[in-house]
Amino acid sequence: MSRPANPVTVPLAGYSPQHFLLAVVEGVATVTLNRPERKNPLTFESYRELTDFFRACAFDDAVKSIVVTGAGGNFSSGGDVFEIIGPLVKMDTKGLTAFTRMTGDLVKAMRACPQPIVAAVEGICAGAGAIIAMASDMRLAASGAKVAFLFNKVGLAGCDMGACAILPRIIGQSRASELLYTGRFMTAEEGERWGFFSRIVTPEQVLAQAQLLAKQVAEGPTFGNTMTKRMLAMEWAMSVEEAIEAEAVAQALCMTTADFERAFHAFANKVKPVFRGD
């Protein structure tokens, strides 16, 4: 369980990850889980490198939004059975707790990452792969995509990596309970109807549509988008009154940005504003 030899450094330009593919185009970073022959399972090393990446994004102003996808027609089958589950059976409680905290760190890093994250889900999206999709800010599905939080299928609880906290907020308590107790697959159609997916597109278009959505976000006011993501997370633990006050402070801060002034002048001149992130 050693750390990757070359952890993420900032800025991300020129960084070549060992356990996934990375491309940054026009402010959109596309992360591709890339073990297609086994449906893109995660390993100890890929968990850590992904966590390092999302943490590093906070320090790279060139990255405005992020897309997460999988290679070869599948998103991710979750933790690798032989490279993760096998070794876990031999660990003591201390080692197992270190592992479960390490996997949870990935979700924490995604939620703390200031850039909005779009998941482009195709094919199988299971276990930790389903968690990565869940932890993203937006999700698009390819027709035929299937999502399963199948932890109980391997004798574990559904409370993994924040699933019991986050999933009910997305699809509701009863539906989340059904998926977590049974481990069954949720179809793309169910996911769209329940609000897990924003929409369903063809497999050929899911990545392009996710990148287009991420580009639209990237073209928006960077500070404003970051504040929206922060408030969406923080307000879970607030009363409505506290949330209204927090949003008043957040919006006042946004009004101090140059992008806010640019938007006013663009509106006055009947042109589309070009945001610069300051």
Automatic annotation (TrEMBL):
UniProt KW Lyase keyword: yes
Family annotation (Gene3D superfamilies): 2-enoyl-CoA Hydratase, Chain A, domain 1, Lyase 2-enoyl-coa Hydratase, Chain A, domain 2
EC number(s) from the headed UniProt entry: 4.2.1.17
Name of the protein: Enoyl-CoA hydratase
Major enzyme class: lyase
Organism lineage string: Bacteria, Pseudomonadati, Pseudomonadota, Alphaproteobacteria, Hyphomicrobiales
InterPro entries to which the protein is assigned, alphabetical: ClpP/crotonase-like_dom_sf (IPR029045), Enoyl-CoA_hyd/isom_CS (IPR018376), Enoyl-CoA_hydra/iso (IPR001753), Enoyl-CoA_hydra_C (IPR014748)
Pfam families listed in its UniProt record: ECH_1
PANTHER family noted in UniProt: EG:BACN32G11.4 PROTEIN, ENOYL-COA HYDRATASE
UniProt keyword Lyase, yes or no: yes
Alphabetic keyword roster: Lyase
Transmembrane segments annotated in the record for this chain: none
Family statement drawn from the similarity comment of this UniProt entry: Belongs to the enoyl-CoA hydratase/isomerase family.
MF GO annotations: enoyl-CoA hydratase activity
PROSITE patterns per record: ENOYL_COA_HYDRATASE
